[in-house]
Design brief:
The protein is mostly beta strands. The protein has one domain: Immunoglobulin-like, CATH 2.60.40.1250. It has one helix spanning 13-17, and strands at 21-23, 29-32, 36-45, 50-52, 65-68, 74-76, 85-87, 96-99, 102-111, 118-128, 130-131, 140-151. The chain has a 4-stranded antiparallel beta sheet with strand order 1-3-9-6, with no helix packed on it. A 4-stranded mixed beta sheet has the order 2-12-10-5, with no helix packed on it. It starts with 12 loop residues before the first helix and ends in a 7-residue tail after the last strand.
């Protein structure tokens, strides 16, 4: 299948006024040293737009991708992406797999056994390419910050 994609060199004034993709600030993740937990990253896509799912339907498409850097004692696992929804471009012979509206990415978080109690943050970005029914914007990203608290285990409290 050959698919012609038009990139918008300059965003339309309407798009500039409101973000196409928003990441809701995730709830703080609390975990003990040597333990794992999970963060829930909620993404909102503006009406009329869709993002390519992960994995993307075709190799040439830009998948939605969450990239979070590890810290010295707390690190992220591999993100768990939701299944995409089928989306058919006008004139196309097959569906693309996309995200629209609200969707969630689950991110495992692990604290090393030597992690000391305290609060910190993991930072990164959500990389995506937003498209509407006629064209695609240039690939972009939004920052993501995840607050993490390592708490003392009950057995270490006296």
């Amino acid at each position: 299948m050959v698919l012609a994609v038009t990139f918008l060199a300059a965003a339309a004034p309407e798009v500039e006024r409101r973000p196409v993709v928003t990441v809701k600030p995730p709830a703080e993740v609390s975990l003990t040293a040597g333990a794992s937990s999970e963060a829930l990253i909620v993404i909102l896509v503006a009406d009329g737009f869709h993002l390519q799912a992960n994995p993307a339907s075709e190799k040439y498409l830009v998948p939605t991708e969450l990239e979070i850097a590890k810290s010295s004692d707390v690190w992220p696992g591999r993100p768990v992406y939701p299944p995409g929804r089928p989306y058919r471009l006008q004139g196309a012979s097959s569906d693309l797999t996309t995200y629209e509206g609200r969707f969630e990415i689950r991110l495992p978080i692990t604290a090393s056994a030597r992690a000391k109690p305290g609060a910190g943050a993991l930072t990164g970005k959500l990389r995506y390419q937003a498209c509407d029914a006629k064209s695609c914007l240039f690939p972009s990203s939004v920052p993501v910050e995840l607050k993490v608290a390592v708490v003392a285990s009950k057995s270490s409290k006296k």
